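#struct-pred
JK: can someone run the complex with zinc ion? inputs below
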Amino acid sequence: MSAERTEAPAPPSDNAVRALHVVLRSSETGFYLRRLEHPPEYTATFEQALVFDYVQDHVPLLIQKVRKSLGQCWQAVPLRISDVLETCDACHEMFGVPEIQFTGRSFYCVCCATESALRP
Ligand SMILES: [Zn+2]
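RT: done, structure tokens with the ligand placed:
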């Protein structure tokens, strides 16, 4: 078995969707997309790469478009869940996944979630 996984990520279940963030990597150069412009800007540094929401940003469609219009192949590279930060809708601070909860409508950090639960 190879250590590198090349297959596409499994289709997400509803409550996994929010965690499916990816960066785009050029298969040709191995560089990551930094800015979606004409022409696109790339970086060798993973941390500087532009982060996409795989579902909300229609990443498969974007990859298809770029292949057609620019003749470039991009791969979606999933982020580790611990790399993904979400903004609390109440206090607007950013938190990692363990500290933030999705209520079905909003993201709340642990403190704001407790506060909103106490509200009538
Ligand atoms: Zn908060």
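RT: quick notes.
The radius of gyration is 17 Å.
The CA atoms of residues 87 and 93 lie 6 Å apart.
JK: thanks, will look after standup
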